[in-house]
Model the fold of this input.
Amino acid sequence: MGRCHKVSHVQPVYRSFGYGGLSAILDLSTVLALLFLLAPVVIVIVISFSADSYLQFPPSGFSVRWYANFFVGDPTWVHAARKSFVVATSTAIIATVLGTLVAIPLARGGLRGHSMIEALLLSPLIISPMITAVALYGFFAGVGLIKSIFALILGHSILALPYAVMNVSVSAKALDPRLEQAAMGLGARPVYVFRRVTIPLLAPGIIAGAFFAFLASFDEVVIALFLSGLDPTLQKRMWDDIRLEINPTVAAASTVLVAVSLVAFSAAILLQRFLARRIAVSAARDDS
Amino acid sequence: MPITIELSQVRKVYPPSFTAVDGVYLTVDEGSFTTLLGPSGSGKTTTLMMIAGFETPTSGRILLAGRDITNLPPYDRNIGMVFQNYALFPHLTVYENVAFPLRVRKRSRAEIDAAVARALELVQLGGFASRYPRQLSGGQQQRVALARAIIFESPVLLMDEPLGALDKNLRHHMQSELKRLQRSLGVTVVYVTHDQGEAVSMSDTVVVMNAGRVVQQGSPRDIYRRPKTRFAAEFLGETNLLTIEPAGSRGHLQLGRIKGGPLVPLPHSATAQGGLYSLRPEDVTLARSAEDGSFGPAVVEEVVYLGDALRCRAAFPEGLALWTKIPAGDTSLLPREGETVWLLWQSENLIAVSQN
Done:
């Protein structure tokens, strides 16, 4: 405990937890929380390699037959995956472009009633996607676009927009307006400043926003149920599968989803880190 | 000398009712180093931002080489600017930062290469072209900002407290470098600072500002020796402020009584004999005994050692205390606290100042 005292000069509160029985309890609960979060993923991955013809854990044997079925055997799976990818990519582009254009004036407080607008933009996070889905269904049924991919992309863009706005806002709030002033003083017109100064400096937020927007669409099922018609997305295809014929292909599909999420996440982090390394330091320098 | 920048009756009011700049009239001579000096909130930075084009005056006009630029956007003004925090682009290398104004102007690659090399050489950063701003020290970043501001050969360079973030030694070094660069380029510099030492040592012209107005414009020596207002006298250097009441005359000498102090002869130049006067501490000397023209006796109350000088406060029995400043090398005059002394000054060093 004497040692603890010395340390507490520097790190007053956190360190005092580091000793005695409390620490063991905290460590244990962290491990339990992680297990709790990871268990479904682990179970699904294990089942996807099952040799059985139905969903069962633990499986009686292992094979890759369900992956074969997913990628080759039943072409509707790859077709659905391709549609999900197209929808998610389009959603990411629309939500990010729109989100960026809105987040910049929002972050600077340049819009009249900006806190109201911000609350409205983030509302899809709070409102149940079912409400959005029903509203869109009603609207697109009226104009006869119910089975169009555009309806689905539009619906997903509504859900994805808050992620884009939030992530770009973080970067936009940290952006020093003097950098844009400096560029203008050096002779750059507003469009040039936007392209060469504003956008590169917002890049980390834009990338994070695009990543979350992509996943918001790729993992979405409620709106897809209403709007994807007979040509389902991967999530919708999995939903149909579970309802009609329960075999482990759905587990293989889930594993593919996890893999896509991981790859997208890693790519976003790597790209962000590469860009942030250049930018983050300028903020720290101002404090010195 | 031709006038490069002229501000006439420039006002800047921020809604609802904050007047940052309140009717400024200002002329900047071509090729001069002009400093806007004032405390924070005096309107000096707002004035600079209006010259740069980042702020638009609420009323009044700004002329650049005779042309009205009041409503011209900053990118059409062709004015170089160095910001307080340098505002270097963190995502660009030193080379790209410095090349930025030329890229905007669509110069050829060869031309840009040559100009960047020349500009970096000029600020002694020859080997740093491929670094990023974060990899440079504060002083080096400062020079990059400078190189970027001069590379497009703007006739006017604006600087907003560019040395504020540097430590003292580096600041002195950069002061003389800036001055050398300004002379060799022949560029007109408008410089903003709250550091009176910096203003005095670098400028051809100092513009003292307070509460959104120009208090006095002149050479540093002129403003230091002949302040017109109490504010200018107190902001530029240290001073004793004396309230003097007229007390008749003796022969051709006008006399006055310092409030709380002795009867003194007034300077010939004084038109209104009574009022407020400034007396610089270094113009007051001490004597151990009464001499011809000395005032006293007074008691030394405080002695402060400054390294190169001593500052000493002596109080008259009537209550007035005066600061004197004595070069530390002059050991024969070193006063001690509690000692009785007599004070001497030339009456011409009493400078009448207005209250505002």
About this structure: Chain B is about 25% helix and 35% strand. Chain B has two domains: 3-235, 240-353. The mean pLDDT of chain B is 90. Helices of chain B lie at 44-52, 94-104, 109-122, 138-150, 168-185, 196-202, 220-225, 230-235.
